[in-house]
Design a protein that fits this description.
The protein has 320 residues and is an alpha/beta fold. It folds into 2 domains: 4-114, no CATH class; 121-315, no CATH class. The protein is 43% helix and 12% strand. It has helices at residues 10-14, 22-27, 33-40, 61-82, 121-150, 186-196, 215-222, 230-236, 249-252, 272-276, 283-296, 299-315; strands spanning 4-7, 51-55, 91-95, 108-111, 156-162, 168-174, 240-242, 268-270. The longest helix is centred in the middle third of the chain and has 30 residues, at 121-150.
Length: 320
Amino acid sequence: MSSILVLHNRKELKKLNPNKSRSRWKRDKPNDINELNDINKPNDEYSNPKTLKIDIPDLTAKEIVELVLKYSERSEASQKKWRASASHDVKIYVRTATLSSISRSKWLKFNNAKNKEYRLKRCLDIVIGTILFILSCPILLATSIAIKLTSKGGAIFQQPRVNNELKIFSLYKFRTMSHLSENDNTHKRYMQKSIKNPNPNQKVHKLVDDPRITGIGKWVRRLSIDELPQLINVLKGDMSLIGPRPPIPYEVEEYAKWQYARFKAKPGLTGLWQVKGRSLIPFDEMVLLDLYYSYNRSVWVDLKILCRTISIVLSLKGAF
């Protein structure tokens, strides 16, 4: 029997039950590896596939994330408990037509064996981060002077953010708003509504024409210069160059369980969300892109995202 299972509709998907044999494992603990293999042996076409391909046009981002997490947790638990080999990893491929940021013809691949931090990532962050920081020093200096001359308050401020370990760290940004807006809850109310009750017809998923933004701050944001001080966070080890954007604590408070999938990778200065459209992408799809990155990250993927970020920033796509 083939170990590749292809699903084309929701009726087939409902037959899929990744936790089917878990109760039996708890009831009858295997005595040796042969008995374990016997327990995991498929008894029908929907049991324990090694490669799962889901080609369902109306599958949502939420459904994809939940399915991938369900299989990953099962695979990780079985490997940890039984010291099993990589044969228990499940490769998942998904194709759907509901995602605005992904082409219908593209298969999203989620391979649990890839879900580990690669060794060269920190070296890449230090080397490239240092180079970028030195090259951006004139821009940092000029922006600081412009902000100080055009509005009251400091040029750089620290904002609490949440990392992949659910711990708070201070993120550095150029101040683009009036110093009087520090205690304003406009953004908090907007994000709470956007996460819990997203508008499917909304084209831009960000506050636009915010009156709190200063004149110089508008262009600092559009050119993404306000993010450059985060190179300090990268060099400190708080963040990586590439990864999911770190959320504000009050945003995390509104997360559903499946949305915590964003925390499977270290937060980054840029990532798939930026190169796929930034504020033009709804929050649910951003979570999916973050999970997709965590399963496919590598030096090559990071370099590709870094290069594409430059062209996206210059094009002003999704910047408001």
